[in-house]
Amino acid sequence: MTDWTSDANEALALSLVRSREDKESIAEDEVYEGFHPSFTYPIFGEDEKIYGYNDLVIDLRFTSGSLIQYLNTRYSEKLSSSSTVDDVEGTLSGFIPPTYYKDEEVFLTRVEEDATTFRPSGQLIYSYTRLSPLSSQKKKGKAVSDSQYLDSENPNAVAYEVYHATWDTPGFKEYHRRMQIFILLYIEGGSYINEDEDSWEFVVLYEKRKRVKDPQIATYHFVGYSSLYPFYCFPERVRMRLSQFVILTPYQHHGHGSELYKAIYKYVLSRPVIAELTIEDPAEAFEDLRDRNDLKMLLSDHRFMEEGFGSSEISHGGGRVGGIGRGGRSGRGGNTAPNMNGKMGPPSDKVWVEKWRSDLKIAGRQFQRLIEMLILLRLDPSDARALRAFRLQVKERLFRFNFEILAQLEKKERLEKLEETFQSVREDYARILAMIK
């Protein structure tokens, strides 16, 4: 039976297909076709296995911008017994719109047509640039301009744009039906959302790249997206929950996830009706992404850092204080004078913390964690008083967050568990802080 069993993750090949002229604008190391999903169990079952074929390839292609789909399966051998052989196309077709193409030539014609006609729907809310990989390839290792400062009109720039949409955005509901399969393929535990729930909002990230032969023509290519849902927040505001977040394989590990998160955060800040941004059951990788970006945002906020640590702790460039172990001024007896002019502590001024948390629209637990990380960033390991205050501040939060579990333990066991958790949290904070230096 093993000879006729295929790994669904390996068998399913995904492609974002560009037009012939658009392919001339990509570098040799850019691969947008033939990549694989992270998960297929929502489609092919918990074991992610497909039975009845040898050398099975499931060819699922998308026009790179409009995400029109083409589906084809091929194999070298297939079992003759129809009762035991899995119906690959029949199964997968239940998760994509029925309008997908089966004729390759017709699909490729559609790719050429959509390349210059497709435009994102919704409202442009954020943009950034990167140096064209093709330009970098031609430089052959020579120094190039910082991509973050490239104007979008620069011939060496690739622009990226984020659009906000809702179900009411013309054409978006149909577009969402084509892109939602990436939720199943990339988010563990991901599922399709209900179109009957009217309140959903979406932010979609696209690459906008100029053609080499005709730079006046720029075409759009799908990168990833996130779905958001507002919940009532007393008395007359909402909490915006980030529900789904996905960046496709060809664009991963290039900072696009951070840019999409920044776009969402800036959108939340711009809407007075939104009280705060919350995250639904984040994966570890997303938690790290969120922590890194939130910390960088706080460190670059001069007023926040000056109020938190005092003016003497603020660097010229906008708020970065010394690394772990480079704390305050030494006083008699080896102790320091921790943050005499600052509100960060330890212990932190709770009223000050809550004011900033509310203004920055960051969820309570997340903001408390960020404060703790910033304290640790400048904490002097020789300052016993500050170390104790920091430990108590973290443990107080941990106790409140895990109260129902810890309350059931005997005092000694409870204290041991809190200490164990504190040490684990501190180690994790050090790991995260190391990422932002």
TrEMBL record:
Alphabetical keyword list: Acyltransferase, Coiled coil, Cytoplasm, Nucleus, Transferase
Catalytic activity: L-lysyl-[protein] + acetyl-CoA = N(6)-acetyl-L-lysyl-[protein] + CoA + H(+)
An example Gene Ontology biological process: subtelomeric heterochromatin formation
Superkingdom assignment: Eukaryota
Binding-site list for acetyl-CoA: 245-247, 252-258, 292
Listed GO CC annotations: chromosome, telomeric region; cytoplasm; nucleus
EC number(s) recorded for this UniProt protein: 2.3.1.48
Claim: Nucleus is one of the keywords in the record: yes
Active site positions, chain numbering: 280 (proton donor/acceptor)
Domain (Histone acetyl transferase HAT1 N-terminal): residue spans on this chain: 4-188
Site (Interaction with histone H4 N-terminus): 200
Enzyme category, top tier: transferase
Family: Belongs to the HAT1 family.
Annotated function: Catalytic component of the histone acetylase B (HAT-B) complex. Has intrinsic substrate specificity that modifies lysine in recognition sequence GXGKXG. Involved in DNA double-strand break repair.
Record's subunit section: Component of the HAT-B complex composed of at least HAT1 and HAT2. The HAT-B complex binds to histone H4 tail.
The protein's name: Histone acetyltransferase type B catalytic subunit
Originating species: Collybia nuda
